[in-house]
Fold:
Amino acid sequence: MANAPLTIQVSEEAARAFARVSPEDQRKIQLLLDLRLRDLTMSPPGRKSLQTLMDEIGASAAARGLTPADLESLLNDG
Structure:
């Protein structure tokens, strides 16, 4: 699947934190955001539980090479 640019507004702190991480970590963060945006926009509201969405995001991330430790690290660094 091809990528396309997307500009969104985030807090200054989030923007600075993203700019400080390595290109590899930026790629991982972009992947997580991509997965989450697709989950939020392609599923009817209220159809899936938060746990179901989190499980699906985790499975998709694992299929793309992110380990549970990578995901945990990304969540804890936020």
User: Anything to note?
Assistant: The chain is about 70% helix and 0% strand. The CA atoms of residues 11 and 56 lie 27 Å apart. The chain has one domain: 23-77. The chain has a mean pLDDT of 84.
